[in-house]
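Subject: for your reference before the review

Hello V.,

The reviewers asked for a structural picture of the protein, and I figured it would be easier to keep everything in one thread rather than splitting it across files. Below is the amino acid sequence we used in the manuscript, unchanged from the supplementary table.
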Amino acid sequence: MNPISQITPQCVVALTWTLKDTLGEELDVLDEPVEFLVGGGDLLHRIEEALQGHGPGATLDLHLEPEEAFGDYDEQLVFLEPRGLFPAELEEGLTFEGLPAGSNPEAPPGLLYTVTEIYPEHVVLDGNHPLAGIALRLSLKVESVREATEEEVGRGTLGTGFFKVQLQAPGSDLLH
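And here is what came back from the structure prediction:
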């Protein structure tokens, strides 16, 4: 891969960062560089805009309003479902792609739902991204920049999206 001197559309950038909310609470830290495809689906649009023209060693401090990040919190994406529809081994923080058969038909099918509360008769599931409705402060450093391969551009991702919630085992980090 050929290193390049500055970030342009359709390149790969390796970043480290610290992500905080506006109260200064740390939400995530990337100590080791992680590669993202610029011009694909890996980074938020606002971050890609800010990175343009910068090169290795650049540091940026960004303030992201909810609409520039994960949107406003939508109470209509919170559902109370019968406990019997879910496996016996259920923990808060588990995620499900869509809701199980027999759930509220109004629930959008393509979302990841996080179990937020468990009651004897019901389970509360939230289809919002965990960072929805939160203004974010991101301090990032560009560790390296290289040309993207045709295959990477064709896929539109390196598979390391910026805080995409993924189906994961309980207790693991949900954010990246």
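For the response letter, the relevant points are probably these. The chain has two domains: 11-70+132-152, 75-126. Residues 166-176 have pLDDT under 50 and may be disordered.

Happy to draft the paragraph if you're swamped.

O.
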